Amino acid sequence: MRKIAIVIFILVAFISTGKAQETTYQGVVEKFFSLYSEKGPEKAIDYIFSTNPFLDPSSDQVTAIKLKLATAVAVIGDYSGYDPIIIKEFGSSMAIATYMVKYKRQPLFFTFVLYKPDKFWQIQTLRFDDKIESFDMNDFENKAAK
Fold first, then answer.
1. Which of 17, 52, 108, 119 has the maximal Cβ count within 10 Å?
2. Domains, the chain, with CATH or none
3. 24 φψ region: left (φ > 0), alpha (ψ -120 to 50), beta (else)
4. Kind of pairing between the strands at 122-129 and 94-103
5. 3-state secondary structure at position 125
6. d(C-alpha 130, C-alpha 76), whole Å
7. Which of 104, 128, 136 is nearest to 32 (CA)?
């Protein structure tokens, strides 16, 4: 009986949070891209910002990211997957990961800055760029090293 009560408590705690929290930064990124593929970029953006309780998912900045992304995606063709480009870990609590998101016409580049203040990973910064010529790997390497 006690075991059943514990299982029920865990289920209620999970349901009441409204979301599963990821214990690895890779899990956060994989869930982002799973949502991106299955439900679209807007749902993926909603998810990634929901990982950080200090970021308002309805803020003007998040809305601007969604609008800019929707505008870019509308003209670059069909989505066909993603590839990791650079992943840097800083200790056990921070990671910066850049991914190339493949579309028919051209790629997009997403950079995630993820932080784990305690048990769960959260987004700190999300950037994306649709211009290949502005994506400078050396610049990323220099910023990440500082």
1. 108
2. 20-145 (3.10.450.50)
3. beta
4. unpaired
5. strand
6. 9
7. 128
